[in-house]
Amino acid sequence: MRAKKGAHIIGTAKPTVTLLHCFCRDVQLLIACCIADILRIFAPDAPYKDPAQIKTIFFFLIKQLGGLKDPKDPAFKRYFYLLENLAYVKSFNMCFDLEECSEIICALYQLIFKIVK
User: Fold this and answer.
1) What's the CA gap between 38 and 43, in Å, rounded?
2) Count of domains in the chain?
3) Which residues are within 8 A (CB) of 49 and not within 5 positions of it... i.e. 6 or more apart?
4) Buried b or exposed e, range 39-70, using 16+ CB within 10 angstroms
5) Which domain holds residue 32?
6) What pLDDT, in 10s, does the model give residues 62-105?
7) What is the distance between the alpha carbons of residues 82 and 40, in angstroms, rounded to a whole number?
8) What span, in angstroms and rounded, lies between the C-alpha atoms of 62 and 47?
């Protein structure tokens, strides 16, 4: 009972705009990892329902995945952890339910091609 209540509290916690726009790169990365963990825990039913919030979250996650461009970066393992978590539960599939789906998916693919290039 306690674990279920705790999971509900975590799942309904909303990342605030202040946290998503923090200037510290490490804090942003850790927030992204936490969001990915929440998506993994609640898969396949994400706790985020507001389309605007989902769009903001996924653009934030895409921005964080940009850290994969430098494998020598000390934080690369955390960026890879983020990628693995998002891929494992197919988190980006929930974007297909949004009207702005193409914006998010295009941004993701642009980033992937930029990193590979």
Assistant:
1) 8
2) 1
3) none
4) beebeeebebeeeeebbebbbbbbebbebbee
5) 2-116
6) 999 999 999 999 999 999 999 999 999 999 998 888 888 999 99
7) 11
8) 19
And the tokens for 112? 């992937």
Q: What is the DSSP string of 15-63?
A: --HHHHT-S-HHHHHHHHHHHHHHHHHHTTS-S---HHHHHHHHHHHHH
Q: How far apart are CA 108 and CA 22, in angstroms?
A: 21
Summarize the confidence of residues 12-18 as an average pLDDT. 54
pLDDT digits (tens, 9 = 90+) for 17-64: 556 666 788 999 999 999 999 999 988 888 888 898 899 999 999 999
